[in-house]
Amino acid sequence: MRVDEFDYDLPPELIAQEPLPERDASRLMVVDRDSGRWIHARFRDLPRFLRPGDCLVLNDTRVRPARLFGRRATGGQVEFLLLDPLGDGRWLALGRPGRRLRAGTVAICGDDRPLRVHVEEVRDGGERVIRLEPPSGETVDETLQRLGRVPLPPYIRKELDDPERYQTVYAREEGSVAAPTAGLHFTPELLARLEAQGVRIAYLTLHVGVGTFRPVTVDRVEEHRMHAEFYRVEPATAAAINATRAQGGRVVAVGTTVTRTLETVAADDGTVRPGSGWTDLFIYPGYRFKAIDGLITNFHLPRSTLIMLVAALLGKERTLAAYREAVARRYRFFSFGDAMLILPGVAPHAGEPA
Predict the structure, then answer these.
(1) Average pLDDT of the segment spanning 32-59
(2) InterPro entries from the entry (predicted)?
(3) Rounded alpha-carbon distances, angstroms, from residue 239 to 40, 181, 291
């Protein structure tokens, strides 16, 4: 398959630049996985489409304050995006301007009790190994909480008044450089309503990595390689999912990160095994799903691995047809945009066939 088969026309004004005042007020396109037909709803209508005995699986990762601004010791503004901790205050990071951040460069972040950043190595692909030197009496984590900012995707052009709006309400395990955005629509009240009607709620962790920001640069889908990301599935989560399947319920993943994690740890018969590790699973059309029946996800960038995953579940032509409908209906796209629910048997007689 060619990457350009997953392209579509998106007017720039449909890229959401900020979240709605109410998380669950976003729109929800509900697409039947069997027929490709759709209906339009609001996210707070989600309980209408789930049944007692279904299991909703969410990613409880939290976005770390991984963005640092500073200046080189010799002058000039710099920016770092922390990717993965390497131990002893060392991090794998992205930096700009890249031509000014050679090995041996020292940068200063903050004016009062500043953080010193030492560039130790420049790797292929532009990644850098840096060492963070916090002020006396402060740990690296404490300094990052004080000076770091939550990174936002490059298509969002302004800072948030409330950085917590780029966190899910159930975010607990810090370690991501981007939010699992399908979960941004949930409120504590909505989760309580779902539980009250008999929907199981389960959590896992996948720390979203730099692959979220990187475009697909190859021409052929099969040639793309995913950036590995850390995941953890607790025994209680695996047990809840396996019980759901055994009792005839549906497993609904909230986001592509949950999907990739569950498909990584699932056996061929769909049984989910607890554990932790790193996954670079790339899901695109032709993939046979083992662990999930449905998916809640936002509307993704053209030519991205995320829209390819959606197309693997729904079908490429149906996915692109649904996206054209979303554009025509003026849905909001990407991280702070509206959502899609793909589930078998939810809208067999409504909307138009994709």
Answers:
(1) 96
(2) QueA (IPR003699), QueA_dom1 (IPR042118), QueA_dom2 (IPR042119), QueA_sf (IPR036100)
(3) 33, 25, 13
Q: Per-residue pLDDT tens for 314-341?
A: 999 999 999 999 999 999 999 999 999 9
Q: Would you tell me the crossing angle of helices 305-314 and 256-265 to the nearest 10 degrees?
A: 70
Backbone angles phi, psi at 106, to 5 degrees: -120, 130
Mean pLDDT of the chain: 94
Instruction: Please say whether the beta carbons of 253 and 201 come within 8 A.
Output: no
Domains of the chain and CATH, by start: 3-63+162-343 (3.40.1780.10), 67-147 (2.40.10.240)
Pairing mode, if any, of strands 294-298 and 67-72? unpaired
Alpha-carbon distance of 60 to 183, in angstroms, equals: 9
Chain centre distance of CA 86: 22
- Give the mean pLDDT of 225-245: 96
- Enumerate the β-bridge partners of residue 294: 252
pLDDT at 8 over 50: yes
